[in-house]
Amino acid sequence: MPCFVNFSYSAIVDQSQPSYLRPELNLPMLTSTPSISNVRLAKYGKWFNDSSEDIRTCCDKALQTLRAQYGWETLDVTVPEIEEMRLAHYVTIGSECTASLAKYLDKLKRSEIGWDVRVALGVYGSFSSRAYLNSQRLRNRQMFFHKEIFKTADVIVSPMTGYSLSVHHSCNTHNRI
């Protein structure tokens, strides 16, 4: 089984349940077809390396295998102002959440929701319309940076998760992805 599918599947399946209660994973056996050539993969090291050693190793191995088997090239790129974009994204989501839930929140008793939701809604409600507009400006600026990356690359690659839930031997025992 491919290691990236294995990691993704493990992340979404409740591992605490007995194996007979877990959904069955049936991957189709694909026949070999002509591969897509000249694919350029953009790798932003700060994102790519922000994971545990086992995931980073597996993902590096996947990139090496893609290069060896299909000739796909990996390009090192930088995504500027990514931390600012993360904060802008938080403001955007919070503002839109507050706006869409406003009519329900007025009728809701605070005791009916958990403290985590109360804190989040309190923070979201503190965002001003100016903060929202500035977030949209940052979003547009970030779109420019991504369009520049996609002028030289076809895909931005990054691990799907920062940590594995359990040890997966598929990356260590198979030479395929």
TrEMBL record:
Highest taxon, organism lineage: Eukaryota
Gene3D superfamilies: Amidase signature (AS) domain (3.90.1300.10)
GO molecular function: catalytic activity
Protein name: Amidase domain-containing protein
Species this chain originates from: Aegilops tauschii subsp. strangulata (Goatgrass)
